[in-house]
Amino acid sequence: MKKLTALIFFALFSLSGYTQTTAEPISDATYESKNRVKKLYNDALQSIKAVNYSKAQTYLNQVISADSGFAIGYLERGKVLLQLDKKELALADFNKCLQLNNKEGEAYYEKGYISFLQNKYDDALLDFNAAITNNYTEPIAYYHRGVVKMVKEDYSGANLDFTNAIDKRSNFAYAYHDRASSKLKMKDYAGAQADYEKAIQLQPKFVLAYNNLGVVKLEQADYKAAIASFTKATELNPDFYLAFNNRGQAYYFSGDKQSAINDFTKALSIRPDYLSALNNLGAAQLDEKDAKSALANFNKAIELNSQFGTAYVNRGSLKESSGDLKGAYTDWQSAAKLGNKQATDYLNEYK
């Protein structure tokens, strides 16, 4: 049965100071213009601090109208537009900033973050690399690059980036959490446990950290400790279906099939289309000789996602146990075509 872990994505909104220099003498009129731009810009920053992004955008529009060569003005307006969920306009501003100053590392970071939000992970990685190369070495830059590397299954590289984020901000709970997840992927269970526990120490109500600490214990067959962690996650968030499903697995492997069925059922009451819980409930019901209910859950999982190979494998096993060898063989063939190795092994046994 499947065990699930989760990553949390975290973003910060930062401010840049107004800096602009000139080597040429400037007239009183120019001084007046520069002072006006500076005042408008500072008013925009105050609006950002007050979380009044629409007003900040109005001020920054005036800043850029008065000084179209002010790169940081485009950077800050882009960040405001991103807060207003105007991603394409924000991207245009970040590109304009870089056109004016191709060494502005934060603009690369913001571009990368937009690509990240759009699941364009290759583009995001390129921009996060450029941000760090151009001296935007804020903890969040390393953190988000680490998250992209996790998505791309570069767990060692992700681990290094999360470590850099932690070195720069020792209380960065999310970086500890995701470094733990990279260690879990690399089967460094002791390291993963230590980092999840540190994340919980920094944020005592960190639901995902409790859940994933439970996954570490589940991987090590410490079912009692796993159940305790998953239970804490459900206490903090009674609608957290993932933790109910995972606790169900811990109960299942500990031999308490009825508690497992209860938890899988609870997960499905919160999210009826949760494939893992449907499959796991079916597997537990099959063990408890409730073939009719098990078949219904495997069927529903496959109806919801025809690419869910594990449900085909389990439905095939159910059919085999009831004497329907042809039906079992057909389901295992379907699973094998989806790349399920267990199904391939079953088919080889019948050759």
Protein traits:
single chain, 351 residues, mainly alpha, Serine Threonine Protein Phosphatase 5, Tetratricopeptide repeat, 19 helices, disordered N terminus
Number of extended strands = 0
Q: Give the helix proportion (percent range).
A: over 70%
Strand count, sense and closure of the main sheet? none
Topology pattern, helix = H, strand = E = HHHHHHHHHHHHHHHHHHH
CATH superfamily of the domain at 279-286 and 293-351: Tetratricopeptide repeat domain
Dominant shape: elongated
Task: Flag low-confidence runs.
Answer: 1-31
Structural class assignment = mainly alpha
Report how far apart the termini are: 26 Å
CATH class of the domain at 279-286 and 293-351: Mainly Alpha
Mean pLDDT: 90
Radius of gyration: 26 Å
Q: What is the number of helices?
A: 19
CATH topology-level fold name of the domain at 279-286 and 293-351: Serine Threonine Protein Phosphatase 5, Tetratricopeptide repeat
Percent strand equals under 5%
Which CATH architecture of the domain at 279-286 and 293-351? Alpha Horseshoe
